[in-house]
Amino acid sequence: MKITVLAGDGIGVEVTREAVKVLSAVAKIYDLEIELDEQLIGGAAISATGAAFPDETKESCLKADAVLLGAVGAPEFDHLLPEKRPEIGLLQLRQALGGFANLRPSKAFPALIDSSPLRREIFEGTDLLIVRELLGGLYFGQPRAIGETEAFNTMRYSVAEVERVARVAFESARNRKGKVTSVDKANVLETSRLWRETVEKVAKDYPEIELEHLFVDACAMHLVTNPTRFDVVLTENLFGDILSDEAAVLTGSLGMLASATVGGAIDLFEPVHGSAPDIAGKNIANPLGAIASVAMLLRYTAKNTEAAAAIENAIDKVLAEGYRTIDISNDKENFARTDEIGALVAKYAVEFASVRSNSQAV
Ligand code: NAD
Q1: Which of 57, 59, 280, 353 makes the best surface tag, with the fewest CB within 10 Å?
Q2: Which residue puts its alpha carbon closest to atom 36 of ligand 1?
């Protein structure tokens, strides 16, 4: 498997180093042949080549099976026009890869439940995945315009666009708890009625998966009052943008969260956080979001559920043993460093993976 690694800027470099450490350790146990190609993106790429997404980086990505991204953005470029800044590299990357489904898991880590803004009894047991349509809807619909006295945007979806993202949600539910909640506003919007009809049709191919429909306002409410009722939440672009941030904040830390963008020519995996210039270069960033992104890569691109689970179990174990980076530690004097967490997850992931492969050999 060819993976292009784009560490980017700030803590992107530090967390990606740990993610690669974990990936390489687990790959060895499972005899996965992994070829890593490190390339530049963002501010680092502008400094070296003048472009935020250089041709060489693009070529490497387009030849890869998956791209692992850290984060982009650095304060020294903040004075530049938006089209010259590091963040434009991210948009160009996403465009080049063409993924239409953004997947964001959100889960209650047993050891971190008290960091959630929700009460323990509400949040405990939460383990959900938001599947957000990424290339359609209000953000891309034409026509769009702004005038002196009015402005408008267009919400538009085709059956094909809904169908392909619905399939990603149903396939994901197969490997999880077997339930899809499709979120729309079908009582008001025609696009939502088409959405609902199309999801119903796709559901016929997945008789073992339970399907429910929720209006987006009800979904927003259930996310904070009863998040354990969800497994896979399937929704369109705008609703997904809002709901995935709402679901993210429930977990108590930005540094823990992974994401995947799939369905295009090449899959993209990245933590949801940015380059965090305020803590960059200090070896204190939380690498677990980046490491969990590697687990998603193994699950979605390599289709190796066991290797993914070995990493996820290792993350749980590290947290259960009390290791915390400063963002999730109650003790701001004594806390684990970025590289320490990476090394521990790698060690435990190898242990979990070895137990599995040995028991299979027996
Ligand atoms: P940010 O996510 O970088 O940081 C927000 C806050 O969360 C900061 O206080 C930071 O220290 C903390 N934080 C984030 N990740 C953490 C981690 N892994 N461990 C510990 N603490 C963590 O968002 P921001 O400050 O709004 O943006 C900083 C830069 O990152 C900007 O240039 C922005 O454009 C860029 N950005 C990039 C991406 C991306 O590459 N996908 C996403 C968001 C922001």
Answers
A1: 59
A2: 274
